[in-house]
Write a structure and sequence with these properties.
The protein contains 7 helices and 3 strands. It is mainly α.
Length: about 200
């Protein structure tokens, strides 16, 4: 499951890079894609301190429709150096554990040995997919939504991958069980909604 999750995250991050390439002059990297996929940016809603997750598809749609400018990406928490400060420092631990397995005391049970090596292989595949991924997002960036027409807002909201991690009422006690939820991944090949398609309707 971890390998599958890491592969989905990699696909989603690469898709975000492709979708944002033109609007950012190629400056949007896979690091940014991973950061957004990790729910690193939230946008404020209401006047009580509520917020929602800004998903990669929503970010691409905002950029491609000129509703936000890449020139302001630092204020959106997308400055490379800020993200890199959170990048995993422990990649060498996988190699360390593999060496321990190879040169350590032989496990008494063959099934245990097989399971250990399987976990090591799983870790290598996962790290290969997650090599550019930040280690953790301890604190997300909170931003304000740009002005949008009613139709634009409808399209923007429709690109959300889910509301599980949205907090509309900060005073409400948070359900810690969400930590066990699978995060939705945008792995579909439908580019229509996130490409530049300005709404010229007058509300």
């Amino acid at each position: 499951m971890v390998c599958l999750e890491s592969l989905q995250e990699l696909i989603q991050a690469r898709k975000a890079v492709r979708r944002c390439a033109k609007a950012t002059n190629g400056e949007f990297t896979i690091l940014h894609g991973f950061f957004l996929g990790m729910m690193g940016v939230r946008y404020r809603v209401g006047s009580e301190g509520g917020y929602r997750t800004l998903w990669p598809g929503q970010s691409a749609w905002l950029l491609n429709n000129g509703l936000v400018s890449w020139d302001d990406h630092k204020s959106w928490g997308l400055y490379k150096e800020d993200i890199r400060e959170k990048t995993k420092p422990t990649a060498c631990l996988v190699v360390h554990h593999a060496v321990d397995c190879a040169h350590g005391t032989r496990p008494p049970l063959a099934p245990f040995e097989t399971m250990t090596l399987a976990y090591v292989l799983n870790a290598f595949v996962t790290y290969d997919c997650w090599w550019a991924k930040p280690k953790d997002i301890a604190t997300a960036s909170f931003v304000d939504q740009p002005d949008m027409t009613a139709r634009q807002r409808e399209t923007f909201d429709g690109l959300s991958m889910g509301a599980t991690y949205d907090v509309l009422d900060p005073s409400q006690k948070q359900d810690m069980s969400v930590a066990w939820y699978f995060v939705a991944r945008d792995c579909q090949d439908d580019e229509v909604l996130v490409m530049a398609r300005l709404d010229h309707d007058v509300e």
